[in-house]
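Figure 2 data, in text form.
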Amino acid sequence: MAERRAFAQKISRTVAAEVRKQIAGQYGGSPQLFKNLNAGTLTSNTVPLTEAVEPVDFEEYLITHPPIVESGPLRDLIEFPPDDIEVIYTPRECRTVVQAIPEEGDTDPHVRDCVRSYTEDWAIVNRKYHKLGTGFNPNSLDKQKERQKGLPKQVFEADELPDSSGYQDDQDDLKRRSMSIDDTPRGSWACSIFDLKNSLPDSLLPHLLDRAPNEEIDRHNEDQRKTNRHRELFALHPALDEEDPIERHCVPDVPKEHFGQRLLVKCLSLKFEIEIEPIFASLALYDVKEKKKISENFFFDLNSEQTKAMLRPHIQTAAISTLARSAIFSITYPSQDVFLVIKLEKVLQQGDIGECAEPYMVFKESDANKNKEKLEKLRSQSEQFCQRLGRYRMPFAWTAIHLMNIVNSAGSLERDTELEMSLSERKGSWSERRNSSIMGRRSLERTTSGDESCSLTGFRPATLTITNFFKQEGDRLSDEDLYKFLADMRRPSSVLRRLRPITAQLKLDISPAPENPHYCLTPDLLQVKPYPDSRVRPTRDILEFPARDVYVPNTTYRNLLYVNPQSLNFANRQGSARNITVKVQFMNGEDPNNAMQVIFGKSSCADFYKEAYTSVVYHNRSPDFHDEIKIKLPASLSDHHHILFTFYHVSCQQKQNTLLETPVGYTWIPMLQNGRLRTGHFCLPVSLEKPPQSYSVLSPDVPLPGMKWVDNHRGVFNVEVVAVSTIHTQDQYLDKFFALVHALDEHMFPVRIGDMRIMENNLETELKSSIAALNSSQLEPVVRFLHLLLDKLVLLVVRPPVIAGQIVNLGQSSFEVMAAIVNRLHKYLDTSQDMHGRNSLLSSYIHYVFRLPSTDPNSPSPDVKSTSTGPGGLGGSVHYATMARSAVRPASLNLNRSRSLSNSNPDISGTPTSPDDEVRAIIGSKGLDRSNSWVHTMGCKSAPWGSSPGSAPETMQAMERCGNRMSSHTESASFLQTLTGRLPTKKLFHEELALQWVVSSGSVREGALQQAWFFFELMVKSIIHHLYFAERLESPRKNRFPERFMDDITALVSTIAGDIVSRFQKDLELVERLNTSLAFFLNDLLSVMDRGFVFTLIKAYWKQVSTKVYALQNPTLESLRLDFLRIVCSHEHYVTLNLPCSLLTPPASPSPSVSSATSQSSGFSTHVQDQKIANMFELSVPFREQHFMAGLVLSELSVILDPDNEGMFGLHKKVVSVVHNLLSSHDSDPRYADSEVKARVAMLYLPLIGIVMETLPQLHDFTESLNQWGRSGGVQGTTVCSNGDDAEAEGNNMINQTVAMAIAGTTTTSPMSRPSSFLLNSQANRQHGSFSAESSRSLLICLLWVLKNADELVLQKWFTDLSVSQLNRLLDLLYLCVSCFEYKAHVVFTMQGKKAFERMNSLTFKKSKDMKAKLEEAILGSIGARQEMVRRSRGQLERSPSGSAFGSQENLRWRKDMTHWRQNSERLDKSHRSHRTRAELEHEALIDGNLATEANLIILDTLEIIVQTVSVTESKESILGGVLKVLLHSMACNQSALYLQHCFATQRALVSKFPELLFEEETEQCADLCLRLLRSCSSSISTIRAHASASLYLLMRQNFEIGNNFARVKMQVTMSLSSLVGTSQNFNEEFLRRSLKTILTYAEEDLELRETTFPDQVQDLVFNLHMILSDTVKMKEHQEDPEMLIDLMYRYCTKLMNVQENQF
């Protein structure tokens, strides 16, 4: 072998097999790399990562380690803030100006409770810092933009698109100035010098040539790097692609009154052909499909003042509320079947409807003069009827509007719409046509049936003109007839076509109702805010009667009754009764004066009347009615309240001695029956005589003696009574329950419920049966009265009633029925659930409504409010007891006995032992049991609770405590007092709830498990209320709760964890809900309970799940545990919970690890210090004990990312997102803004560095696009984050460069040096699946965050302990980070840019060179290191100013995931689909630029720390080579001018400190560096050129100072220039010429070396370079001229030979 050159002697050449073996030896093997480094620290006592360690006793630790810092941000890290939790009483928002409450007060206890429920303030628990938890991570788009304000724009050469015309001018100018090349091709040296001398240099860097100590240079560089840095790294990183993070617990909506989609209808005018009398109109909505009227009537009056005057004798002054002409309708279930029906009435007159309507059909307005006399006659007749019969109405006409046709046609127009509704024989009976201005556009299309198209919220306002009305048929007035007509209207061949219409013109405006309309009145006539002026004509809110049930709890007081007379049959009544009207009155007694003024007026009249009359059908003995009488019900009803119906015959003709109205019958409806409101359909008999005294308490169905009845007491009058009430439940089971509870409150016995009289002695039985019977009640009333119902059940648990001296414990009954109700709501109302399966009605109840009884803000604390139950108060009286669970813990009882009791029936007859035995057992246990209620399985055959798979010792204790039940009604309170030895206090709801849940079994337990979240949240709110009002939130956490409650919680968590583990394969949906519910519960407990205790609960869960996970290797269970962990760690004080300020002095443990033992034995040894540092970076037992939650997170990360753990491959993204989410949250948290605090937070994640280093072989290879050599000359190698799966055929055919090198045996890796990143990441070495690009990127940004924020001294100490191979792996990681966060060029296209794009796009499909030839070259070894490096670099070299914007052409077709320009081009081609504006694209480029800059600066900071660390070690050469490699790689990527300034500064410092590194060790990297610097010297950005020129000059100077010559740099620079100019598209040599002039200027100004040969050598080199530059440009220009081309090539080669000969 020929003698090797001197500079190459240290290169060790190894064969490919050795390279592979070396890599396998260094990086293969155990996934727990960093725990194996310190061999001595691992013993059999180490807890594996798959298990949770014993957590530190948090409260004890805080007591024994008082904070050193007095105050400030660091002090706040140590403990939760004192104002962490508060209970706020927030006044509920009232929609109306005046609160809706009963006018007559609230004497009735049920009314009082209802009104309290609708008016009391919301009781809200506020965790003040909750929004700082990860559930509210500010990485949402809006918040990100807020955090990104004020970012500087980073300048990238890749984004610079110089104007092409300017570029061409430069070229022409160059040609002019270099004319002599054409003239004298042989001798252009002088010309070259002339051109160079005429160039302008860039500005020189100040103090560059000064000699300064290295430390000072480093300090200056660091100061420069650290100024103006962006503090929040994650603000620059896009949030992970998550729909809704699982830990987000959205605050439920405030309970409020229900409204459907709201429609505003304005009635503008009503005009007939003739105007002879007043006409009265009403509007209502009907649903044809449901056959239901879905709104109350809206009465309006559009008569002129002159016409209204005709009725003056009958109408008092009109109230403003009755003058409304606009109304807001609410439609909960809009459909194609909804019609707006308009009915018209007129004053009663002689003649049937047909006769009265005739003039309206015959006379035309145009013939008014011709028919003047006839009209006058008709008008005078009308005036007479108005004066005499003005009180009575008769049906007149009607019409209907198909609502959805209007909405859909209006929605299809571009502006406000006018629609004309008419009946036209030519166009069909019911056509809708637009008025002439828009008629020609297109015919109105019928909408398809189906509710999905029925939205009333977004259509444009429409003005309707209805021109035709139908005459009312006297015998077809019923709703049934109306539904037939409406259904018929939708058919093309309508029967209505044959009817003769009444011509009129009614104008209506229909539009979506505004959000907050002014001057609006509720259905109860209350003013809605805003209501600025009471004199303005109001808009009426029209009450909806929803087509189907609406499940919304009541929130306002409303008590309305609607009476709808339907039909009367007087056919068999003797005597004259033909023109019949019904007078309706609401009576509170039997005297005529007892009629109450509670009947709402219609239009242009008073607000309220004492009576209402139905309309009259002329000469009809069996009329139908279509009237709706609306009544305001009194809040409290008595047995004397009733509706009285009086039937009159109205005499239309005025005769002598004839009364205007003659009573012809009477009937009534008592309002209460057995204490319940009577509603529904009635078919009543009618009496011919006035009812006798005391009739009101009886039903007319009762045959009263001596009374005469129509048709022999048969039912002849049909009427419907509908109540819309938030007082009356209208459900028998709810009514009974509330009645019994109020009987207890009021001590009123006996109590009548239904047909029963309940005495005191059977009250307990009835109470229990009524609680159980709540399951039978209808769901709709249960939901309407949900808040009150749950409040009452809570009250029964907290204060068991004492009945006749016996305490009745209702805890179990109440718990069972609550579980049943909650499950019913979830089952039937599954649409109103959040992502965690929480029903919105129940979660809003807990959040806003639930409170412990007697915890109003103005009352004393609940514990003080205990009622004394001394013996004197027991004599038969009934009241709530306030007995508590005993503080004395019962002794253990026989478990078998407790099980038999647990499954027994609660009734006394079912007890397994006699009462005497039971009492003896209680006394023997020296304590009173806490629940006093039995547990039974409700017939369920399941095993008793104690045999649950998760049963633990704590469970058994709870069972035992619950075993000693006492009879629920055999002991008196006085006996109990004697037994407990103290006055009983009130039970605490959370304690009772926990106990009942723990001892429940069978279907009850299953029901509670199904909706565990509800009981957990109820428990937490109860705990917080109790602590808040007992003023114990400040007390030490260890003393806040009795031990028995803690045991119950432990048992509960243990058994639920058991359920999760045992049932996840059978019922995954339930287990997912249970898992998240338990996690949120523990998260909440961390805010109020002993935190060490909660940690043990987490550990208990962890243990149960771990056992199963590693037995089954099931990723589903692991995924559940990740969800659990993420939720628990989303606590707003997560950092504090991890004791970030603790020094890792592990607490004494039963089996301490070697490391902890050593730490304790020798406090001053260096080993201990090293061990402490090591513990901070390892998942050691001390670390995991003291940073318990962070330890769990990082352990999970380490275990799941373990390449041997193949079953967990699908969870990579999930576990990485847990860490990403936490760090992102810390990054934006204002509490951690201080750098010292952030360093403490970062300390919790130091082991992350080691974990990511372990996973390096599996990370996505972001360097792949740089890693493929042998591209076509026009290809540019922009490093991209590419996804291998997307590679197309050409990509797959490429050969990995380093694989080829390994085959050829040309690797330059020495045994001590760092192996190639590429080889490390090659597919051959990935035996396990690699991570996705997204997961890898997320993991790397987390790593960078830790490196950015960690304490530099701590990092430095740790780096000192690392071996060479570990440091090299860290450098590999940083190398990968450079590629991962490389900036992708963003081009916001101008026209010129578009042309450039099209040009580049046409190149995309050019085929690359023959890959087979490349492979042969590589295998034959014909490519040397230098050529290979040049080829590998070409990707970067060709980034010319205009071409660089488009990245690598070859990769364009498959870089789908990250290539921004590709998206831009798609947007250009598909601009009509574009939703992103230019501003958005610019903003995206701004963010990406700042992220790339910050990420690379963090890498640079870390490299500096590594350099400082290894500069004193023996193995620094191999590490520094790796540092240089990362630096060079970063220079090769798209970088901002800001970063490159700092990068070049670091590079200069590195070469200054270790010159031998480049010139003796890493010779290939010297070549690489020259190439990078020269490339930057040709940059279009002056600052980059200035720094690159400075670096290149100093490189020459340092090379010269070593040996009075800088031949190596000369050669490398010359070679680099030739490849740079020869291969790059659109190369702009003007910029390079400037840089060469700058280098020349430095040489001239360098006083220190002026006397040496250095300035001359520099000048020679620069002139040579310039000559080569000019010649190469000329070669390009003369490609078509062979002679000139050969001439130039000869001269070019001669120059290169001269340079190479002169270097030695």
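Caption note: The chain has a mean pLDDT of 77.
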